[in-house]
Amino acid sequence: MTTEERRCGIMNLLLSSDRPLSGDFIARKMNVSRQVIVQDIALLRANGSQILSTTRGYLIQKSSHISRVFKVIHTDEQVADELSCIISLGGRVKDVFVNHKIYGVIRGELNLRSQLDVDNYLMEMSKGKSSLLKNVTSGYHYHTVEADSEELLDLIQAELKKKGYLAKLQTYEPVDFTSPGEIPHF
């Protein structure tokens, strides 16, 4: 087995495990010493692998966040309902953005993860002289929403549609807003 094959094998072991794997366990599986595994792990990390060291062994840091962009439209009075709908179904509202015909894409980070975050956001908006970003494009705007599964994003999409908040894409807009992690480029 070559060094590259061994490192690939280590990654496969870690990716297929839901629990930490000890250096001794990995060493036995790869038929090398624990010290070789320690060195391999260090090199894998140096190359960008998200390997965590715990008291029980090594673990791959798996990202469980999947995202989808939703085009929505609603009144100012419906903002609380829209955001609460997303949060209550397990979504996290990462941002809000618009595609302005003159200024292009204008984006604001939101990072709303709980109802408390939504309440604080709405309170801050009500204090200021600023308007909601959606108002520069007649109410049309987009949210990048993260969730732990495609199923949760499907539920959020269905609920936004049921409430009448989903907006129809125009012919000039990107077609695929559902690619995980992909933000549309205008």
Account of the protein in words:
It is a single chain. By secondary structure, the chain is α+β, with helices and mostly antiparallel strands. The protein has 2 domains: 58 residues, Arc Repressor Mutant, subunit A; 97 residues, 3H domain (Histidine-containing Protein, Chain: A). It is 38% helix and 22% strand. It is built from 6 helices and 6 strands, in the order αααβββαββαβα. The strands form 2 sheets. It has a 4-stranded antiparallel beta sheet. Strand 1 and strand 2 form a beta hairpin. It is elongated, with a radius of gyration of 22 Å. The N and C termini lie far apart (48 Å). This is Transcription repressor NadR. InterPro entries: 3H_dom_sf (IPR035922), 3H_domain (IPR004173), HTH_11 (IPR013196), NadR (IPR026043), WH-like_DNA-bd_sf (IPR036388), WH_DNA-bd_sf (IPR036390). Pfam families: 3H, HTH_11. GO terms for molecular function: metal ion binding. Keywords: Metal-binding, Nickel.
